[in-house]
Amino acid sequence: MISIRTKKGYKLNIAGEPSHELEQLGRPTSVALLPERIPFVKPRLKVKVADQVKVGSLVFEDKRNSDLVFLSPGGGRITKIDFGPRRVIKEIVVELDQDEGYETFPIFNEAQVENIERQMLVKAIMTGGLWPLFRELPFRDIAAPDSIPPSIIVSLDTNEPFQPTPEVYLKGKIELFEFGIKILQKLSEKLFISTSQNRSFVLDQLNSYVTHICERVYPADDPGVLLYHIKKSPDENRAWYISGQDVLLLAMLFKTGKYPVERTVVIGGALVRGKKHLLTRIGVPLNHLTKGRTDKTEKARHIVGGIFKGYKGGKDSYMGFYETSLVLIPEGGEKEFLGFARPGFQKPSRSRAFLSFLNKSALPMDCNCHGEERACINCGFCAQVCPVDILPQFTYKCILVDEIEEAIDHGLLDCVECGLCTYVCPSKLELCNVMKNTKKACYLEQL
Amino acid sequence: MKFLKKIFDSKRKHFAQGGRFEKLHPIFEATETFFFIPGIVTKKDAHVRDSLDLKRLMSMVIIALIPPLFFGIYNTGFQSNIASGLPVTFIAVSLKGLRIVLPVIIVSYVVGFFWEILFASIRKHSISEGFLVTGLLFPLTLPPTIPLWQVAIGISFGVVIGKELFGGTGRNFLNPALTGRAFLFFAYPIKMTGGAVWTVVSNVNSSGVDTFSGATPLAVSAVQGTASFIESLLAKAGFTFPKLFFGLYPGSIGGTSTLMCLIGACLLIFTGIASYRIMIGGVLGVLVAAYPGYIMSLVSGNSTVPMLALHPLYHLVMGGFAFGIIYMATDPVSAPGMNTAKWIYGFAIGFLTVLIRIFNPAFPEGVMLAILFMNLFSPLLDYFEINFRLKKRVPNV
Fold first, then answer.
1. Number of folded domains in chain A?
2. Were both Cys, which of A200, A258, A432, B66 would link to A422 (CB 3.0–4.6 Å)?
3. Does B123 touch chain A (CB under 8 A)?
């Protein structure tokens, strides 16, 4: 086991962290697929409104590769296909039947997995609809099925305050996880499994599998950060990664022959009562998760997928394919009288410019920017937190003047899109978004 | 608060696009955001933001400037009353100091803000907080006898040529306050240097004036002599090391007291707003530059270059070095952004300060020139360090 020292990053001390309790949620009335939230995919719809589908029926495929299929997370009737601007497909809603039908997929036992050819295994995962769980660094597109990755990184942990912890989602499923690892070992010779310090549960149960231990700061657990710290040559850049929970899905598909839909989701944030882990399914409606747990949905921002990386979901929308976290924090937007001159005992800040440095308790936060956008003053706070040693203040300026080559030399593609640079910036610049969009543009140009 | 909010809400329409005072929108905005942090919310990720903004950051610098400012006011009054033979009670001295310093600060802010507003209105962007600091830093570097029209010209040069021409706060490569001061220094040398400018003498009681020699420590020590001679000369003029450290001697308004600057430095370093690397690098630079000459002059006994014989520690407490390295050199915009570059930058400022003082006594303000000179080099220092760093990176293309 190798310990990875990350000198940078940041531990956000925000109020509303979930407990480790797991609650089993009842069935929702509908589930949905959100093609809009799946990166780079060009969906070709295979269903119409009013079609009947089973769990695991083909809903849409990727135009770039028609073998890349996306299956229905529920059995029932398609009630709505919601198009957004420029015909982007936002939601495909399936109203669940009382008795959901299941499509069947081939079942593999451990010996079969051991002996199967790699190509056949890839095919089985693709037809099982779970290939999109594999993502390829650095652009985080769905992995190319016909390529062999230099390594696969499984990040069990998450140091983001609102993501499921391995203690919860792995409890009682260690064997399933081990089976999943066998599948991954077949896909790549190098398999890195990382967890954070002091995760005694994981370290006890999976001691022989864990290869790297990261520090407990955000985002040290990100596969991109791990790769940045362990890579020795440029050949290793195109590593794949898969999250710990998704390894379980993979194993379930092979064990049961059914398209797995089970998800452990975290609900947290200051506006939620009973912040905890919820056992539910892929694509549940947000109001199914929040029901009875919050009163102030009007004033709350529903952040799907984490406080730093997530997106703003409407309160009637659905959880995406990858997302495992729902955070409700106040939208904010109130003006604060003489805010800059207050001692700020309650104002969370990484700097020591507020008295809050004396306050060790978790502080409530809202979505207020706490200031207006200004020009960069080169304070370098962003470089102090960047986990992959990019110099966002310089890289950002390279991008603004279209010196993309230079930005890439600076390590733009190593960017793990963690959002910390945006978080700390006193000039309130959208550093991370600028870098993310540039990365995306670079990738689309390469295609 | 509600009352203020109402006022702003009712007047907003006049300053909005198409309103009567559309052109003055930056003033309205600056005033409103002074009273209220605007309720802008994040549009995308990251959904939460740090509470620190530029207003807070700049106010911390202002707070760090309070010790030298208050002491400067007291000292100015004190020197003036001594020279004029007036009573030196605390209240009398403070009032006198205020009467001298306050107009300078007010002129600096008013004229500076005029330019800020003008540029902001034409460029249609908001007024940056950076000027709050510049407008206070600039007067603190001036001699108390400065005529107010020169203050106005100096700050105008600093803000317009030093900053706005290049695009405003964040885009300037020179420290605007120092640019203004350097302009005055070269344009009106009589008012900026020499013995007479550092104390305001109000001729109420002329008997006091006779005993008054207005020389600054820098001027005194620029006399030929051995090491012990030069120190005794300084001491004879009243400039013992403790006195220089505490700062109760004639000099620029805010720059005399090393102690007060150190208090400010503690705050700046603690809050992480100014770089300790630059400050420590600067001190090292001074010591490294001054010690060889000092030892040489000790050995040879007599030196042709007078300043060489001065004990290096004196360089740290004289001529506003502490003020310069703590408040001026650490301006993040004109300093380098990389850590090693900051060490080099600070070191070079200290080194050059001593070199200028020793070998070019015609320009006693060594620290000002050294900082401006190194401002020019900070992009280059950054460039080298970034290139060096990128070589160690595993490429990702």
1. 2
2. A432
3. no
